[in-house]
Amino acid sequence: MNRINFASQIIGERRYQSLILFGIRERTFLRLIAFFLVIAIVFYPYPQIAMWIGFMFAGYSAIANDSIQTIGTFIASNQNRKWWELWLYIGIIFVVTVWYSWYNYNGDVSFQRLTSKGFEESPTSFKFLQLAAPIILLFITRLRMPVSTTFMLLSAFSADTKAIIKVGQKSMTGYFIAFATAMVVWYLASALIKRLTKGEPHRLWIVAQWVISGILWSVWIQQDAANIAIFLNRSLSFYDFLFFTGFIFFGLGLLFYFRGDKIQEIITEKSSVTDVRSASVIDLVYAFILWYFQSVSTIPMSTTWVFLGLLAGRELSMTLSKNYDGTRSLSQTIKMIFKDLSFALLGLSISILLAIAINPNIQRDIANMLGW
User: Fold this and answer.
1) In sequence order, what are the residues at sequence separation of 6 or more whose Cβ sits closer than 8 angstroms to the Cβ of residue 177?
2) Taking CA atoms, which of 82, 260, 300, 370 is between 20 and 30 Å from 90?
3) Is the same domain home to 28 and 73?
4) Calpha distance 73→318 (Å, rounded)
5) Which domain covers residue 3, as residue numbers?
């Protein structure tokens, strides 16, 4: 008791209580992760159960980690709105988008992203690490690390080394194209953007931001629904589709209730993202880049890498241009860019290790490449 009183006097009563509450939350989260791992160990030998357990793990963890790309700016610039208003808007768009894919592609909710080489067949058996992959992703998300859910989840199912390489090549290309696009847009249009973001935003900006965010969210679903549907049959029945959409819909409600949770800090630390006009420009450019890659090929890609490239190019352009006020120094900007990139590379490394551990074919291909 004396220790507690002494500690609270040193760091302040309110600060001390916050630390205690933080410790309780983190211990609860770690217990939950341990519980999920036990569930994965128990049920992975039973495919009909494991597919839905894996889907539920992947459904929340993938969207929670990728939320910074699509609804992160939407949450940041609408902090004065009720969480359930944001949830219903985004949730309804999700339902309509996946219904379109399910209806037009014979029960496939991935917009045929999983028909690319190496992902065509429905899973008939599971390994423990395949169910553990989204749990690992959930833990990484808690650490505020933006990682590629595409690499993390799809690589656990691909026995084709070439398929993983194609996904990686498309994702890396996406990073550099997004980086270059953001540099050009925010540098050349710096004077215009500065003029647009002065004073209080007109109501039409709020309408525009909601429309643009909705379009971006829909385009993102068309790219990344494959990361969630990888655990399920390639053609879902009507009742399977109802459970699929219902679970994600209510999972989105939880995400909005927590306002994006900890990984939202990746967004809020960037320059001027809480302004509805700046958020609208970010979302519009990002939606255009995703639409472009969706049109190029059906090969899955990491939208995380594209988004990080977009933010990196934007931040660097704002730092180099004289038209932006209150931006950070060049060294601070470079440090932040490399921090985000290092987290993405860490996630990529974990994904590759998972893929190697799970798939004997990949182990064999690597051994042949190394001449073993």
Assistant:
1) 289, 306, 309
2) 300
3) no
4) 17
5) 1-43
